[in-house]
Amino acid sequence: MSERGVVNDEQGEGRRGGRGFSADFLTELFRNPLDPGYADAALRRAQRGQPGRAGWSVSPVSLVIVVLLGFLFAVAYRQTMAEEPGRAQARSGLVAQIQQRQGETDELSIRADALREEVNRQREAALGGSGAARLRNLEASTGLGKVRGDGVVVRLADAPPGQQPLSGAKVGPPQVLYSDLQGVANDLWGAGAEAIAINGQRLTATSTIRNAGQAILVDFRPVTGPYEVSAIGPGAMRKRYEGSGSALTMRKVAQDTGLSFEVRDAEDLTLPAAPEPQLRYAQPAVSTSPSGADELSGSGSSPSPSGGGR
């Protein structure tokens, strides 16, 4: 085919709107990207007056569904706003109940302390001089009596909100953990402390330091930061504690995370008495059958007529 013939074909293609022959397929593809079949279908829809895919049409059913959804959303919003005062009132009622219970608990605690003081006075009067002094020493050593003296105060506090760690090392969260208080208390005992209290909660041989969610409990009583661990002991107690594992660890954590850790001397500390623990004692099982008595005695035979053997 001659070059002139090719030019005539291209002119005819422009009049018909169809796809003609071209030696460069990629050039033709980018010039006419729409397939002729799709173009013809769009032309037929336009002639019949039907909207294409790019058109917008709303059927009556769709309109009804949209209106119904809008109505449901409006009803839900009105109900939510109508119930909001009720929820606020219920919340304020719960807050008032909590405050009332806290007030009652504080009053009962004050009354319990007064009764404990009265019991101590009556007991000392009944025991006399030496017996009362020995009892006071035992109560002080076990944590059941109020004590006074010089000692050390270890203060721990969470890092300020929004503060980023000072270094990239991952040494722990910037909050005081219950295990931190455990380590401080144990190392203070090891440094020679004679009495320890955490935020006024006296520690005894049966005390526990644990967490419940985000709260820290000392003997099942919540304590909040900043946490002060007060200890009464000898003059060398602070120097011994400064070299303990918990002191070195907490200083490193404070340096890396912004957590507050401070150790200072304190004079004339007063630590309150701990509540009397509810102790449980194990008792041997008592058997009423002769066979059970024989089993407890370690022998299957009956006792001798002379009464010996047990």
Quick recap of the structure?
With 310 residues, this protein is α+β, with helices and mostly antiparallel strands.
Structure notes:
50% of the residues lie in helices and 15% in strands. The protein has 310 residues and is α+β, with helices and mostly antiparallel strands. Among the domains are: 3-48, no CATH class; 148-271, Alpha-Beta Plaits, CATH 3.30.70.1880. Strand 4 and strand 5 form a beta hairpin. It starts with a helix and ends in a 13-residue tail after the last helix. The relative contact order is 0.09.
Widest sheet, order of strands: 3-2-7-1-8
Counted by DSSP, the helix tally is 9
Helix content: 40-55%
* Top-tier CATH class of the domain at 148-271: Alpha Beta
Low-confidence stretches: 1-19, 292-310
Fold-level CATH name of the domain at 148-271: Alpha-Beta Plaits
Q: State the total count of DSSP E strands.
A: 8
Helix and strand pattern: HHHHHEHEEEEEEHHEH
Mean pLDDT: 76
CATH architecture field of the domain at 148-271:
2-Layer Sandwich
Give the CATH superfamily of the domain at 148-271.
Protein of unknown function DUF881
Based on CA atoms alone, the radius of gyration comes out at: 43 Å
Q: How far apart lie the N and C ends?
A: 133 Å
The coarse silhouette is elongated
Instruction: Give the DSSP E fraction (strand runs of 2 or more residues).
Output: 5-15%
The class by helix and strand makeup works out as alpha+beta
**Main β-sheet description:** 5 strands, antiparallel
